[in-house]
Amino acid sequence: MAPALLLVPAALASFILAFGTGVEFVCFTSLQPLLGGAQKLGPDTRQEWLTALQDPGILAALARDLGLLLLFVGQHSLMAAEPVKTWMTQHFGVLQRSLYVACTALALQVYYHVLGLGEPLALKSPRALRLFEHLRHPVCVELLTVLWAVPSLGLDRILLAVLLTLYLGLAHGLDQQDLRYLRAQLQRKLQLLAGPNDGDAE
Description:
Structural class: mainly alpha
Radius of gyration: 24 Å
Largest sheet: none
Distance between the termini: 52 Å
Number of helices: 9
Strand content: under 5%
Mean pLDDT: 76
Order of helices and strands: HHHHHHHHH
Number of strands: 0
Low-confidence stretches: 33-38, 198-202
């Protein structure tokens, strides 16, 4: 009985964390806090919505966005279905997951093409691209943990762990220019997040 009771606060904490993450995501994706705080839904606002929904240009943009969203969701759902996964495994073997990721990337490329955004990296500043050349992906920390956090290491495992650690470590070489760029981005994000709170305080 005691172990079961211990699961209750853990489950509650997990729910609160997931709910809080959802709220933060909604706040992050909403532009309204960045434009001066929340706006109450009044009669004028309702009329603006009704007028906007009668605009053919806005309806076309909404239809395009809906199509792009359905493309992404449909590709994920279809290729994650068990019959499709079984068929792909039979015909492509271990490449099944790689094909799934490639199709996901293709769906995102369609999204970028339709919106006229071009190559995703082309939207990044030269300073950001320079940083990417010197910075390893954070998931590499997980890889190093998997390589080293084991009870015992065989000779082949030690060789693999040492070589990959050296490879990841040597390729991670931030300099002062990269650090200044990261510091500037951090300050910019902190100011952006602090803006709505300052507006509410006034």
